[in-house]
Amino acid sequence: MCIACLPRGGFSRREMLKLSALFTAAGALPLLRAAEARAQEPDAPVRIGYLPITDATPLLVAHANGLFEAEGLKAEKPVLLRSWAQVIEAFISGQVNVIHLLSPMTVWARFGSGAPARVVAWNHVSGSALTVSPDISSVADLGGKTVAVPFWYSIHNVVVQNLLRENGLIPVTKKTGTPAANEVNLVVMAPADMPPALATRQVAGYIVAEPFNAVAETQGIGKILRFTGDVWKDHACCVVFMHERDLDGRPEWSQKVVNAIVKAQLWTRANRAETARLLSKEGPNRYTPHAQAVLDKVLSPPEADTEAYLKSGAIRHADWKEKRIDFQPYPFPSYTEELVRRLKGTLIEGDGAFLAKLDPATAAKQLVDDRFVKVALAANGGLPAFGFPDTFTRTEVIAP
């Protein structure tokens, strides 16, 4: 396979290098200085930065439904960004102050570069899948082929490598040559580039957030092999990341931001079809370029879809009662701890030396600030309102 022929789109090698530089102390310093200048704006409104994926749903719903204003906050129109590098650059420099970010990426940001920011809530649970060419029938069939991931520090990379190893395959990152029969070559690719790459057989599969798995299904170019939420029960994918200067310097403002996000998640759970319309290109704000029919397949899929996934094996743990995407804001410490443990054993390009020094429990305490989400949950029915037991502890369930 010709790696050089892969579609570049919004995630070129330059973007990758840029993002890697941002997550170093030296690379982030100029942006942090710019942020300090912006920090002199004590009444800064809510400024959301997002990628056009379903991971951004609560932030966009909160804006569309006026939930920030209902909390007494000013909120600007969310800024659609085209790559994780753009999201991070805008966030570190202070151009935006509320973002959704891949949960493993926050580990990299906090401990790899010392970014003064913390996770305040989960944005959603599940919401991703491993999509493959129609001729692929099992994970084992991926041997000798190439699979795309959205970023090295992503739950997608963690889960797919877990699946590969469970099936006797070795994840590799070869820039040239063809992977051996017992290897699977992993490449980083922008989500929007994944369906075209699958259609032209440049990759045999990809693992990514929705709605790009639904796109492959509706276009007839691929099928879902496994849902990530059927491998790691109720896992976080994207989380809400905010600056420490806001969390510590503007606690009342921060509380109101989180209040709005929690209320947005509750509204989304009760209004899935309306959420799909709101996020779609047919919606009033055109938050994403996706058709409502594609988003419907993710947010409010027909029962027939579930039956088909059970039959194909895309869903193996029916007793988990996982939705294709669901919403629950509490950042369970056990998840962050297990994520750090698994990142240590995950193949990641770039400098990951900092991971070796991380204690999972300590990392969870330093990365996550749950004081605001606990208050917001208490005012909105607690975790039972989201279909979860009323406890802030749980045991992680991972079963390929």
UniProtKB/TrEMBL annotation:
The protein here is known as NitT/TauT family transport system substrate-binding protein
Pfam family of the protein (one): NMT1_2
- Which family does the similarity line name? Belongs to the CmpA/NrtA family.
Q: Name one GO cellular component term.
A: endomembrane system
Q: Where in the cell is it found?
A: Endomembrane system
Domain of life of the organism encoding this protein: Bacteria
Q: Which UniProt keywords apply?
A: Cell inner membrane, Cell membrane, Membrane, Transport
Decide whether keyword RNA-binding is in the record.
Answer: no
Q: Which SUPFAM superfamilies match?
A: Periplasmic binding protein-like II (SSF53850)
Q: Which CDD domains match?
A: PBP2_NrtA_CpmA_like (cd13553)
Matches recorded under InterPro entries: NrtA/CpmA_ABC-bd_dom, TAT_signal
